[in-house]
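Format notes (please read before filing issues)

Several people have asked whether sequences and structure tokens are stored in separate files. They are not. Every record keeps both together, in the order shown below: the sequence lines, then the token lines. Line labels are part of the format and must not be stripped during preprocessing.
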Amino acid sequence: MKITLISTATYPSDQGIRTISSVLKNAGYIVKIIFLPFSEDYKKLYTAKILAQVIKLSTGSSLIGINSFASTAPRAVQVINSLKKLDIPIVWGGIHATISPEECIKHSDIVCVGEGEGAVLDLAKAIEHSKDYSRISNLWLRSNDKIVKNPVRNLIDDLDSLPPVDYD
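Then the structure lines:
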């Protein structure tokens, strides 16, 4: 199963998305990471050409993950809106999703609150096996007019249990 992860971080060294990629690759998933670094003038948004490239690179995925900081959240919204036509589940995670899930759930059907390594892996497995993912810890889901706010799982105590970050 192919998964695309997208970072709107200003700097391309996004450690969180690289760790999630490693966790997913360790589980046998094919993962592509797209970094969208851009000017620190946060009023600037991506061009139509860049969004078309993101759509092309994401086509064929079974799951799309996107992360952002608060400063790059408008860009994440722009990317999410452009990807909705692919009809692929999109999960919004990262620092902004954790501190402002109420805002993020307005734009994405799935929001990851807190650490995403276990939640995104559980989500990928559920999608791969066509199982219900509405009860996965750390995920908020929007279904029609209802928002499901699942509990947050415990933090990962043993960071050495995580695979090395993905720099492929």
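For reference, the curators noted about this record: Residues 15-26 form the longest helix (12 residues). The CA atoms of residues 109 and 144 lie 10 Å apart.
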